Structures are given as structure tokens and as C-alpha cells.
Amino acid sequence: MREALSMGGHAAYVWTAYGITLAVIIFNVWSARRKLLNALGEARRARETEGPRSQPKVRQLS
Amino acid sequence: MKLPRWFHLFGSPPFVYRLAGILSPWLGFLACALLLVGAYWGLFATPAEAVQGEVYRIIYIHPQTAYVGMMAYVVMAITAGIGYIWRIKLAHAVAVSAAPIGASFTACALVSGSLWGRPTWGTYWEWGDPRIMFETLLLFLFLSYLALRAAFEDRDKADRVSAILAVVGVVNVPIIHYSVLWWNTLHQGPTISKLDSPSMATVYLIPFLIMVAGFTLCFYWLLLKRLRGEIVERERGTRWMQELLQGGAP
Amino acid sequence: MKRAFFAVLTRDLKIAFRRVSELANPLLFFIIVASLFPLAVSPDPEHLRSIGSGVLWVVALLSSLLALEGLFRADAEDGSLEQLMLSPVPMGVAVLAKVAAHWLVTIVPLVVLTPMLALSFSLPVGVLPVMAFALLLATPTLSVLVALGAALTLGLRRGGAIVGLLVLPLTAPLLIFGTRAIDLGLYGESTAAPLYLLAALAVLALSLGPIAIAAALRVGVE
Q: Which residues of chain B have a CB within 8 Å of the CB of C215?
């Protein structure tokens, strides 16, 4: 196992490359999720502050 | 050309929002499974390569990320073009969602490539290599697209202007590709060749292809995830969004 | 259509020659930046010869960016661009005329100056025709790209810095083939291949470019 992890002495290169790729995927997942949650939160807040006043108008229009 | 009726559903934000919500966990599960299996297979279950030893194992992530970057650019340009021509807001939303994913994967491919280059070519960066130059320019194209979008405050204008840039960019991508390729041959510099993928032995090919499939699904998973956020941002005031919020659904 | 083309062209040329000092700015920039390189790198003629063609090409690219601010902005602000769009002239033709005017006024002087600067970089006289020819073939494409950058950023209050980001990555093929032609000329080999490729790019840019520029202008003037 130890031998397999050492990658024939090139462990630093191989594992860094895999680690960075993994980090990029995780970053993308995180940022997509944050974007969705932020957008939902903002939409909710906008609905609360604008309140029922604007809501019927929107309903009538569409 | 007459399109089937159901086709129009793909221009409807609520439909696509829900569809993406249903599809993305499945895609995510499949992508993660393929990536884990492929990575384990590639890292531990294949023999070391004769010339490069163990370092060659970067081949299971580097070409795939580079390919996802290119695919992201093509997806971005096609959807941006569709959005510009038929004025479909949803198509613009897809284009916008593809850009940051493509940019980050292209940057990642450059980094993993240079980590591969150091032990095999003896250098982190080789300006003479056409593929490195192509990837670098592709990254610049992504970044200029994002910078142009960021400069506009009006989303609708940003959509249409950046769509033109994306389409011009995709016309340029093959030109850039061949120009950097011929540059090297005209240059008659040292031609460095990596593992030739077509002549790859089956032992390496299977995990390689698993990783290709895994990264492809991963891209579409991330794209759908981002697209949902983008749709909510754009559709904030609409009725279906209000109803969605009332239901308390994510 | 031909008449409309020349009408737009002569109008733009007239306007440009009314402000000669503005025309001179990119040229001065070109000369000054090019003369910084011997100071920064080394005054050794051998050295300068090896970097000369590349330096001159890059500096020419940068100075052509300087001139683009005036390309559509003034016309958009005084409304003449909208008039042009409302007129029956196809927008692509008008755009082509404007690009041609820009090329004649700001780029041709650069092309004339480059061989002189090349001499100061101790490039041999024999390559100068190749260099001038390569520049003449490459600069129409460059003008189209610069105009595209100007058109894309028309809706922004300040487009200056971002245009470089948009245009410069797209100019890579020009740079590659342009400097390669000169290098081949330096070694006394045939320079036909890169020159043909530059010509092909110019044809492509001049035929498709105006469509994209017109589309961008339409968004920009709204």
C-alpha cells in the first residue's frame, strides 16, 4: 500500500494533480449550491419586503 | 422546420428548473461513482507504464479535464448563439452557467499538465508545445467572456453582447488550434509527444474511458446545478417562482 | 451599395483628418514603446535582431488598440450611428467602410513606420518587404477584431481596459503567422505559407467580421 501511494517517487506530482482536480470539482459544486441558495434567499427576501402589495399585481399580469 | 410540441418545453424556465432538479442528483451520483471507480482503477489497479513509470497516472485526469474545458466552450457558444438568434433567455442562462465551469476545468488541466510535464519533460511549462498554448488561449477566451459579462450591469445586454463574443470565439477556436499546431512545425522546435492515446493498451484504455465518461457526466451535473441558481436569479419576480417559494421548496 | 460604402468612408476620413493630433497618439505610443525594449533588454544588435520582429508585432497590436475608442463611440453619442442603422444601407457594408477608414488612418501609418523601426532593431534590409507585406495582410484582420472589441464595449461607459482582454487572445494566430513569415525570411526560406494563411484569415475576417460587428453595434446603441 505504501509503495502504491509513493507513485515510484513521483507522489508529489501525481497526488497534487489529483488533489487539485478534486478541489476544482468540489469548488464547482460548492459555488453552484451557494449560487442557488443565495438566489433563493434573495428571491424570498424580495417577496417579503415587497410584501403582498406587489404580489397580486404579478399574479394578474400572468 | 417544424419542431415537435414537447420541444418547446425546453424554453420554459419552470419546466427546465424542475427537470434539472430531478436529473442533477442522478447525474451527480453516476458521475461520482464513475470518477471514484475510474480513479481507483487508474491509480491502483493498472500496472506502471514502461517509459514514464507511475507518473503517467495523471493521464486519467488531465486529458479529461482539458476535454471538459473545450466541451464547455462549445456548449457555451452554441447555447449563446441560440439565445441570441431566437432570443431565448434560458439558452443564455445555460451559456452563462457553462463559462465558469469551463474556465475552472481549463485552468485545472493546465495545472495538472504542468505537474505532469515536470517529471516527464523536465519543465513545468513549455511555451513551444501547441497544446499548452491552445489551452492557455482557451482559458483567456473564457476569462474575456466572463470579464465582458461582468462589465455590463444590464443582464439582458450582457447576455446578447457576450453571446456575440462567444460565437466569434468558437469560430476562432479551430483557427487558434491549427495556428499553434503549425507554429510548432514551422518552428521546427523539439517535438514533444506524450502518451499517444489512440495506441493506448486496453489495460489503460478502460479506466481512461471510464474517467472520460465520469468527467462528461460531472460537467453536465455541475451545469444543471449552476443553471438552477441562474434560473432563480433571472425569474425572481415571476408567478411560478412566487408559488415555488410559497411551497417552501428548494 | 458601393456609393454608400464610399460615402461612409470619405465621411470618416474627413472627420479623422480634422483631429490630426489624435491620429498621432498611437504612432507615438508605437515608437516610444518600441524604443523602450533596447533600454530594457539589451542594446546588443544580435539580441535585438532575435527579438525585433516579435517586439514590433506585439507593440503594433497594442498601439492599434489605442485608436479604437473613437471608432464608434463619437458616432453613437451624436446619433449618427443610429441614423446609419435606420438607413437602407446594409449595416455590414457601413461597418466595413468604417473599418476601412480606421485601417487607412491608424494602421497604414503603423505599417509604414514598422520597417524603419525594424532597421533600428538591426533586422536586415532583405526582410523588410516581407515584414511590410505580412503587416499589410494581417492588419485588416486586426482592424476587424479591434472594431469588434469597440462594438462589444460600446454599451459600457468605459470600455478601455476590457477591450484588450477581448481582442488580444483572438490575435494570437496573426502574431504567430506574422512573426513566422519574418523568421522564415531571416533564414532565407520561402515565406509563402504564413503569408497565404494571413491572407486567408483576412478574407475570413472581412467577410464574417462585419456581421458580428453590426450585431454588436445593434445591441450597443439601444
A: 84, 164
